[in-house]
Amino acid sequence: MPNMNGCEFLEVLSREAMSLPPAVMITGNLSDKLQKRATCAGALAIIFKPVGVQNLLAILQAVVGTRRDHL
Description:
about 70 residues, 3 helices, 2 strands, mainly alpha
């Protein structure tokens, strides 16, 4: 994203929105600090690059299923 990263976007969204949509971060940064920040900002999953299609689909299905269970 040109003006902010994914964590910054989720932090702004969590402050300004009534509820967060399901969020999955895709990153090449493997740092624990980023993982903790993304989770605290509201990411339900973090996927590391390179992303395999089957892995991506499995995580997205799990996240959508988790969100539906809480509605």
